# Entry
Amino acid sequence: MMTFGKFEISVHNHGFLGLDGGAMFGSVPKSIWSSLIPTDEENRIRLATRSLLVRADDRVFMVDAGNGDKWTDKFRRIFTIEGPALGEPALDSAAVTDIIITHLHFDHAGGMSRFAPGGSREVELCYPAARVYVQADNVETARRPNPRERASYLKEDVLAVERSRLELTRGTQEICPGVWVHQGNGHTRGLQWVEVKDGGKTIAYPSDMIPTSRHLPLPYMMGYDMCVETLLAEKEDFLRRAVENDWLVVFEHDPDIPAARLKVDDRGHFSVREIVRF
# Structure
């Protein structure tokens, strides 16, 4: 755990999943990206589902909730990757007072809920007492996903959020003194990235705008991104501010680098200057 002004900061990996490496790097050739991260025999790369935990006074904020376990057999075949599949021990759900969901794709919001015991497909909340913050635009997107995103926005996850103590956010908003959310629309409409500020210092959690440290170069984007031109502008603005102001950036999906401070390297690419572990 890290002391950050009035906050206590830590991270929690809910578990790993495997996603196709080509999809994760979009137009970047495999001959380039495969030197950055290994693949399995099905071309999948290993990815974390890492939450940022922010403790302030009597409140505990958890940013994103991981995959959960509401997967069908088909999902398990596609997304389970060999190696230790489980992350860290489950969090004390009663201790989490607030949950910020960056967007409602299954690997970010799936862990908000589970199927009730006894083989039922009824959904119950894993954190029933927590307030849940999601951008209004993303809730609307998740309710009526386009054909390309339909497989990422699962009905069970949307239903769970609608049953929670939901508080809709809009654009840039301070939801607690020092804890801010900012809307982006490049990866998906209504994604929100998180900024924790104390004095002149910032910890930032970009979510799928920059899923891993391997995605720091501007052209390295995912095939899952809905609007690449919008994302490019959002990403460049974020990274320039991160370098200029010495932000600590937490990577949600990076398998082995939880956080880093950044630089512009000799080739003009954004890159890791210092790895930070919690």
In short: The chain has a mean pLDDT of 95. The radius of gyration is 18 Å. Helices lie at 21-25, 30-33, 73-79, 106-109, 136-143, 155-163, 228-244. The chain has one domain: 2-276.
